[in-house]
Design brief:
The protein is mainly beta. It has two domains: 59 residues, no CATH class; 96 residues, Immunoglobulin-like (Sandwich), CATH 2.60.40. Helices cover 0% and strands 50% of the residues. The strands form three sheets. Strands 6-13-12-8-10 form a five-stranded mixed beta sheet, with no helix packed on it. Strand 1 and strand 2 form a beta hairpin.
């Protein structure tokens, strides 16, 4: 494991199972040497993994990883909520399947179906198959101002919605 921390602590189901310092013996040439922790002996225990990183003896970061191994959340994340109604303005909408700690589920490859209402066009496959637990489509504004609603239906994590406001474009002066 790589980190710029000085010390790591590993917990499984909130029980401390290992601690590690950077391997400066083997990696003297690296400013931030990788960590090596023996976690083989904890196979009998199962649960969420929590890694705490310390610098100067103080806790600076905590990373949690799910022990469940199942998809928990489906998110629809647009880059913008306001578009110019000029027929050309567009925004990316990211689709993501995560665990309960918001870590992307790399083996989620479900088809997501879309519905779009309002003066806009969906750019991308419909249905769209996730790759590595994520993907993206684009929404392009039409030439009429108004409200646009994108609904994405995941086969078992439900539907998510994103709304956009299309504002009138300023006429070009000639």
């Amino acid at each position: 494991m790589c980190s710029n921390c000085e010390h790591l602590k590993f917990y499984v189901s909130d029980k401390l199972v290992a601690e590690a310092d950077p391997d400066r013996e083997q990696f003297k040439h690296l400013k931030y040497a990788p960590f090596t922790a023996n976690l083989r002996d904890i196979r009998a225990e199962w649960g969420d993994l929590r890694i705490e990183g310390y610098i100067g003896g103080k806790l600076v970061i905590t990373k949690k990883m799910s022990g469940k191994g199942v998809d928990q959340k489906f998110a629809l994340l647009p880059d913008d909520a306001t578009l110019m109604a000029d027929g050309a303005d567009a925004t990316r909408v990211v689709l993501r399947v995560t665990d309960e700690f918001d870590a992307i589920r790399p083996f989620a490859c479900d088809p997501v179906r879309f519905e779009l209402s309002g003066p806009a066009v969906l750019i991308g496959d419909n249905p769209f198959t996730l790759v590595g637990g994520q993907g993206a489509v684009w929404v392009r504004a039409g030439e009429q101002p108004g409200k646009v609603r994108l609904t994405a239906h995941h086969p078992y994590l439900g539907a998510q919605h994103a709304e956009f406001e299309l504002i009138a474009a300023v006429p070009e002066a000639v």
